[in-house]
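agent> Task received from the user: take the single chain below, predict its 3D structure, and emit C-alpha cells. No templates, no multimer pairing.
agent> Plan: (1) validate residues, (2) run structure prediction, (3) serialize to C-alpha cells, (4) report one or two observations.
agent> Step 1 OK, no nonstandard residues flagged.
tool_call: predict_structure(input=
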Amino acid sequence: MDYVVILAGGVGSRFWPLSRKSLPKQFLRIMGTDTFLEATLRRIQKIVPNENIFIVTNRIYLDEIRRQSKKFKVSGENIILEPQPLNTLPAISLCARIINLKDDQASLLVLPSDHYIKDNASFRKVMLKALNLSAKGFICLTGVKPDSPCSGYGYIKTGRKIGKDGFFVEYFKEKPTLNTARRLFKEKGIFWNSGIFCFRAVTVLRELKNHVPKLYAQIIQIKQKQDIPKIWHKIKPVSIDYGLLQKSRNLVMVRAEFYWCDLGSWDALCGVLSRDRKKNTILSDCINLDSTNIFVYSHRCKRLIATVGLQDTIIVDTPDALLVCKKEKSQDIKRLFALLKKKRKKCV
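)
tool_result: status=success, residues=348
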C-alpha cells in the first residue's frame, strides 16, 4: 500500500526573522491563504487516503501540526515525534521503520512541507509514476531541470531510460562547489534534486543496512513509537543526501513536470512573487525612491518603510527584529540565525 510522509520538523532558519523556532515557515501563510503545510496536505490528498498520511516533526510543534492537519483528517497516531531534530535521514528512516512494522509491503512518498509547487494535478501524475518505479525496488528521486548553476542543490546525473517515465541515476552530487555546479550545468542529463523521494520501506531499510549500518542498527531497535526516546539521543544528525544518496547505486529518477521551487530563502521567495518594472517586490507600507530589485516585507508592523537608491536588497520587518540583507547573501541568514542562538537573543 502507498503512504505519504511529510517532513515538518525544520526551523526554517533562512527565513528569519519571520520564521522562528516557535513557529517555523512551514506553519506560516506567506503564499496565499494556506500555510506551506496545508498546501502540502492539499496537494497529496488524492494520492493516498487520509489514513495513510504521516507527518514527522519535532515534539514542540505537535499542537500546531494537530491544528493545521485536522481539516485534512490526519490521525493523531500518524504524527511521529522526534525528541530533537537530527536532519532528514534519521527522520525518514524512523518513518520507514514505523510504517514497515505496520505494513511490510509499504511504499512511501516522502516530501518536505515547505516547497512551492504549481499544478497539483501534474504533481500527482509524476508522483504516481515515481511510486510505480519505487515498487520495483528502487529509490526514486524527482528531478528538476536547472535554470542556472547553483551550489545550493543536489545534482542528479541521469543515464539510460528505465521504462517510459524514468531514468537510471549514474551519480548524485550533493551541494557541489560553484565551479563544479557550473561544469555540471553544461552537461546533458543533469537535474536538481527536488527533495521528493519514493521507495518501498524495505528498500530504504536495506540501503541503510548497506551504507549506514550504525543508523540501521539503531533504527531497527524501534518496535513501537514509545521506543523512539530510548534510542534517539544515540543517533547522529545526517541528511539523506550525504548519508545515503551519494552512496547508493540503486537510484532512479522521474522528471518533475510541474513548477517547483524550494523556498529555502528570502531570495528564492523573491523569484516566485510578482515584481514591478524595476524588479521590486513590495509587501508593506513602503515609499520607494530610485531602488531596483528590492524585496520589502512587513509582518504585523504598522510603521512606514522608506527606501532610497537601494539595489538587490531584502528588507523584512517584524515587531521585534529587522533584517536588511543583500540578495546574494540570503543563504547566509542561516549562519546569522546560528549566531543569534549563540548570543541567546529572544528573537529566534
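agent> Step 4: summary for the user.
Residues 88-102 form the longest helix (15 residues).
agent> Done.
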